[in-house]
Amino acid sequence: MRIRALLSAVLLLALEVFVTARPAAAATATPIQVYGAWHCSNDACTWATARSMSDFDANNHWLIDRGDGRPSVNLVILSFVNPLRLLNQTTDTGDLNGVPRGMTQDVVNYFTSHGIRVMLSIGGITYTDDWDTALATNGTQLGRNAAALAQQLGVGIEIDYEENSSPNLTGLQAFIDAYRAILPYDRTGANPAARLTIDLAAGDRWLIDLDRKATADWLRTDTPVLDYANAMVPSKQPSASAAEANWQEHLVGKSNYSPPIPPLAPAKFTGSFYIAEGSKVLPECTNFPQSLQNSTSGWAQTAAPAGAGTTPGMLGYMFWAAEKPSTRGVTTAPPNTCQGGVGAGATALSVPLPMPALRQS
């Protein structure tokens, strides 16, 4: 009996070691759906001058050709429209009826003719005060003007309202309501003008009030109002672990805040990286194997719901920013094209072209 008991104990221990040693089942991965770049034209994001399309192509061809004739991205966001000028329909040296003179139908068609979705970003950190003024003046009319612009050019609209201390959420709600009254939420994505998104901070510790409102009311999977959010770049390029930690904050929310920030579904946001930062040429632009979109892609495609949503994986990646995002520093024009980073990533990650109907949960 003692020998039999000893043998049984040995067998049980061996079984436990075997079970423990077996590799865990691979987490379910969801393919990338959104893979895009913000675009600043050649004048540090003002788009104040209409472009020669031959010059535009010479400086941006990598976006429509990763080296094999296929685009490097499936989304381009032209940045930025000044919200106050859009409200007032301003015409001056840099704007025509409130729209930057460089944001033309020719530029939009340059991308859409290659299957790339186009959006316009309203705001940016430079125009935060103008967002405040426009929303306080007439958020409803601003929403109507944005919808009309989207219909005119056949583009979507991104809300980039970076007011950290006291955002006008009532005015922003009026903007969204007015936009959606003209262009209702379209889960199929078939109508480009119906695509309405918002930018949030890299994690949950900045733009807190905006983050709370957007997550609780506009980015729900059961009653969606906005299509998704972009978790923006932090103040400098993060490490892979820091980027993932920021995104995890969106997934789990902040229950310790008062009032709390609820969890955000993985299917309702993208993560972002720099491709141009100061004078540096980054791997994210030129070297996919060494890039953050490579090293975080496993996490990004398997991130599990943590209180909201049912499917794993973030929507994808956004890159800041194509061509010339600042008056000084590197651009993504030749010789610093991003075929080897962003473009190679499109191939490695099997980015769909054109962008498909997005996951809803």
Which SSEs are present, and which pair or pack?
Elements: H1 2-21, E1 34-39, H2 53-64, E2 75-81, H3 83-88, E3 95-96, E4 99-100, H4 105-112, E5 117-123, H5 128-153, E6 156-160, H6 169-182, E7 196-200, H7 208-218, E8 229-231, H8 240-252, E9 269-274, E10 276-277, E11 280-281, H9 283-286, H10 292-295, H11 297-302, E12 316-322, H12 339-348
Parallel strand pairs: 1-2, 1-12, 2-5, 5-6, 6-7, 7-8, 8-9, 9-12
Antiparallel strand pairs: 3-4, 10-11
Helix pairs in contact: 2-4, 5-6
Structure explained in plain terms:
Helices cover 37% and strands 15% of the residues. The strands form 3 sheets. The protein has an 8-stranded parallel β-barrel. A two-stranded antiparallel sheet has the order 3-4. The N terminus is likely disordered.
Short description:
The protein is an alpha/beta fold and 361 residues long. The protein has a single domain, classed as TIM Barrel.
Which characteristics define this entry?
disordered N terminus; 361 residues; globular; Chitinase; alpha/beta; signal; eight-stranded parallel barrel; GH; TIM Barrel
CATH architecture: Alpha-Beta Barrel
Alpha-carbon distance between the termini? 58 Å
Oligomer: single chain
Largest sheet: 8 strands, parallel, barrel
Per CATH, the superfamily is Glycosidases
Instruction: Tell me how many strands there are.
Output: 12
* Largest sheet strand order: 1-2-5-6-7-8-9-12
Helix-strand string: HEHEHEEHEHEHEHEHEEEHHHEH
The count of domains is 1
As a whole number of angstroms, the C-alpha radius of gyration is: 22 Å
Number of helices: 12
Helix content: 25-40%
